[in-house]
Write a structure and sequence with these properties.
This protein is α/β, with parallel strands linked by helices. It is built from seven helices and eight strands; from the N terminus they run H-E-E-H-H-E-H-E-E-E-H-E-H-E-H. The protein is globular, with a radius of gyration of 16 Å.
Length: 187
């Protein structure tokens, strides 16, 4: 399978984007819903997101040791990038940030091979308000990590990028909601 952005945008348009009336996780109402997990959890989507995400990180020069974000939307994105890094000479580890700390065992908020001191890219499937990324940033900073920036599969262009950039973190999006809408009902 090729690893083109066109392929990812078409997959997102065909599998993940829906028109209707929806309440988003931010609480906002929208006539467009993008359930990126329908793409990011598919075999082709994982391959594309891993390759394109890794390429975007390399081009950013953020030089990260690990990637992760708020479970559950960020999980397949982080895992795909980590897997794509195998054989590149610079492995990138994946982690998940829980919505609440565990109430048993170690009580961890961050799961996986995250190491205090890591330089990290926070990953997201879809950015709307930026709230999930900001929660993940806070958890990583509290855990001793340094956040280099945020990598999203989709930026809905609804203010989330600006909210993240306002607090000092650059944002890279593989695609936008408008680019996906432009591909809806086309093959």
């Amino acid at each position: 399978m090729s690893s083109s952005l066109d392929d990812l945008q078409q997959l997102l348009a065909n599998r993940s984007a829906r028109r209707g009336r929806f309440i988003l996780s931010s609480g906002r109402e929208s006539t467009l819903y993008i359930d990126a997990r329908l793409t990011t959890m598919s075999p082709e989507g994982l391959a594309l997101v891993g390759t394109l995400g890794l390429r975007a990180l390399r081009e950013s020069t953020w030089n990260v040791q690990s990637v992760g974000g708020l479970t559950m939307g960020a999980d397949p994105v982080a895992y795909a990038i980590a897997y794509a890094s195998v054989g590149t000479g610079h492995l990138i580890r994946a982690f998940s940030v829980r919505k609440e700390p565990k109430t048993h065992g170690t009580g961890r908020l961050i799961e996986g091979p995250f190491i205090s001191g890591d330089r990290v890219a926070i990953v997201e499937d879809v950015i709307t308000t930026g709230g999930s990324a900001l929660r993940a940033i806070s958890a990583v900073q509290d855990g001793g990590g340094t956040v280099a920036g945020v990598l999203a599969v989709v930026d809905r262009d609804e203010g989330g990028r600006e909210a993240i950039e306002t607090v000092g973190f650059p944002v890279i999006a593989l695609t936008t909601g408008a680019q996906i809408v432009a591909r809806m009902n086309t093959s």
